[in-house]
């Protein structure tokens, strides 16, 4: 559905994406993990042409979005919903107006219908009675969920999630994970998630890719991912206390015990 | 597309290279600003639509009503200072009765449009640059583009309408207040009767002075919006970038207003 064809991207002298070549299948949740600055968000931005490749192309259902004309770009982007890392809510609008924005600007639905759809979508993300609140009144987790509601209100085929759980407490993070998983299972939405959070990646991903120095060093199912033999992947897993046997072995090691006592 | 890719340039080899790059970037930014203005002018056809009307009304309120206080004070005192300075000089020749004409003509031709535009550039224009710059930094502009909502139609057009309407209106208001301020000083400090002040003011001022003054204000409104919005959209590097965009918007607006003001005066009066 989304295909990267030998995509290379430079920021000045630095090669951020290096001949990246992969395909996201319809209906899957494809998770990209990696260290900070590895190129996760950059690859995500290529999918909606907020960035364009220096070499190669990004294809969406057989159409080259990297080189599409303005009209085609608008048409292709209408198939996407995006949850930005900061949620990117318009601060002067209320929550309801933020979520309603794509419908109000891009459809001819009347106010009553828009209001109904907004309430319905806010309920989907477990937010009630905040229609008239302003984004500045919300917690980080609530902002993310409002951003998610805005991303899904137009029923997009593909949703891109940029660090959906960053900065959130573990309970809220799992709530967001559940929402993403529900969208895939119930609405058959194709998702691409960029995250540092391996627990989240293992829970929601149908496939996980690890990006390192601009290209994927591992691309596999969650079960195979934690068994990866690649040292960088292993380091990344162990940094979050995930081992081949499962999670949470590290607290038992000696150094950690000493630091606790 | 307003969301721009980060730009990286190798260090310039020498001062000539640096100068060349600066000239190239200035020309490119001017071109981008003019293209944005063109797009905004084409979008004026949407200004009365249901989607844009509330934002247009809000921007009219911000530009006009919220600026009226500072414009009133500045205009009133400018008229009073003009009257006092010219009146004291003219008194030496027994011509203080002519302050009406001096105040009226200078307010209509130059002081009214310049003052109003400079105040709006410093208050409304800088706020535009800061607001749009913050939206760029927090990815709100990118979010609009991804939702296929054109930022120029959604954000620039209502501000453009507000400035195109409100700058001439505020200019006219400032001129009238300046003339009233002049009358106040004339009658209380210089011993000129109100009737003589009004007669003198209306005899020497021409309709052309009013029209050219309002035309200037209209052009200044467009300049302030274009510069401020473009600077806002060009913001990079977070909070520091927002501050830089705001400062630049005020400086470039001031310089453009002075230069374009001179050109318009030259065109209509020489």
Description:
The complex is a heterodimer of chains A (261) and B (270). With 261 residues, chain A is an alpha/beta fold. Chain A contains 10 helices and 12 strands. Chain A has a 6-stranded mixed sheet, sandwiched between helices. Chain A has a 4-stranded antiparallel sheet with strand order 2-1-4-5, with helices on one face. Chain A has a two-stranded antiparallel sheet with strand order 11-12. The N and C termini of chain A lie far apart (52 Å). Chain B is elongated, with a radius of gyration of 22 Å. Chain B has one domain (48-269). Chain A binds chain B through residues 11-13, 48, 50-52, 74, 77-78, 80, 82, 84-86, 88-91, 101-102, 104-106, and chain B through 3, 5-6, 8, 51, 135, 138-140, 142-143, 145-149, 154.
Give me the secondary-structure topology.
The complex is a heterodimer of chains A (261) and B (270).
Chain A: E1 2-11, E2 14-24, E3 29-34, H1 40-47, E4 55-60, E5 63-64, H2 70-77, E6 80-83, H3 95-106, H4 111-124, H5 140-152, E7 158-162, H6 170-187, E8 190-195, H7 198-204, E9 207-212, E10 215-220, H8 222-225, H9 231-239, E11 242-243, E12 246-247, H10 254-260
Parallel strand pairs in A: 3-8, 3-9, 6-7, 7-8
Antiparallel strand pairs in A: 1-2, 1-4, 4-5, 9-10, 11-12
Chain B: H1 15-42, H2 53-63, H3 68-91, H4 99-137, H5 140-146, H6 151-189, H7 194-204, H8 207-233, H9 238-269
């Amino acid at each position: 559905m989304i295909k990267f064809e030998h995509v290379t991207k430079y920021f000045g002298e630095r090669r951020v994406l290096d001949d990246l070549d992969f395909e996201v299948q319809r209906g899957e949740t494809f998770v990209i993990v990696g260290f900070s600055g590895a190129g996760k968000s950059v690859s995500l931005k290529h999918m909606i042409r907020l960035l364009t490749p220096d070499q190669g192309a990004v294809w969406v259902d057989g159409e080259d979005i990297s080189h599409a004309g303005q009209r085609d770009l608008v048409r292709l982007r209408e198939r996407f919903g995006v949850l930005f890392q900061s949620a990117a809510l318009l601060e002067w609008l209320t929550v309801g107006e933020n979520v309603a924005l794509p419908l109000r600007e891009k459809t001819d639905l009347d106010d009553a219908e828009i209001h109904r759809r907004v309430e319905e979508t806010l309920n989907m993300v477990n937010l009630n009675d905040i229609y008239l609140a302003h984004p500045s009144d919300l917690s980080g987790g609530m902002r993310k969920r409002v951003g998610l509601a805005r991303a899904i209100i137009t029923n997009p085929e593909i949703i891109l999630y940029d660090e959906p759980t960053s900065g959130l407490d573990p309970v809220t993070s799992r709530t967001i994970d559940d929402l993403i998983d529900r969208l895939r299972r119930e609405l058959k939405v194709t998702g691409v998630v960029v995250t540092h959070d391996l627990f989240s990646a293992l829970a929601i991903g149908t496939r996980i890719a690890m990006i390192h120095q601009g290209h994927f060093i591992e691309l596999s199912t969650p079960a195979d991912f934690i068994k990866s033999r690649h040292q960088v992947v292993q380091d990344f897993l162990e940094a979050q206390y995930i081992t081949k046997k499962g999670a949470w072995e590290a607290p038992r090691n000696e150094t950690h015990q000493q630091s606790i006592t | 597309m307003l969301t721009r890719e980060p730009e990286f340039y190798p260090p310039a080899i020498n001062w000539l290279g640096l100068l060349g790059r600066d000239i190239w970037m200035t020309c490119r930014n001017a071109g981008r600003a003019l293209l944005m203005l063109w797009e905004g002018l084409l979008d004026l056809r949407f200004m009365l639509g249901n989607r844009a009307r509330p934002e247009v009304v809000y921007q009219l309120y911000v530009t006009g009503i919220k600026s009226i206080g500072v414009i009133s004070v500045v205009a009133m005192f400018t008229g009073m200072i003009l009257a006092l300075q010219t009146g004291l000089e003219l008194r030496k020749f027994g011509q203080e009765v002519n302050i009406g004409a001096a105040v009226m003509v200078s307010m209509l031709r130059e002081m009214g449009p310049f003052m109003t535009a400079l105040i709006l550039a410093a208050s409304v224009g800088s706020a535009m640059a800061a607001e749009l710059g913050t939206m760029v930094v927090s990815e709100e502009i990118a979010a609009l583009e991804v939702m296929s909502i054109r930022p120029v139609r959604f954000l620039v057009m209502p501000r453009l309408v507000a400035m195109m309407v409100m700058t001439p209106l505020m200019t006219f208001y400032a001129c009238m207040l300046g003339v009233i301020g002049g009358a106040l000083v004339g009658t209380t400090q210089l011993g000129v009767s109100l009737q003589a002040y009004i007669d003198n003011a209306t005899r020497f001022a021409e309709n052309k002075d009013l029209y050219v003054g309002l035309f200037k204000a209209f052009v200044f409104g467009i300049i302030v919006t274009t510069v401020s919005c473009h600077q806002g959209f060009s913001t990079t590097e977070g909070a520091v970038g927002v501050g830089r965009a705001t400062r630049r918007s005020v400086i470039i607006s001031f310089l453009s207003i002075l230069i374009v003001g001179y050109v318009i005066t030259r065109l209509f009066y020489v």
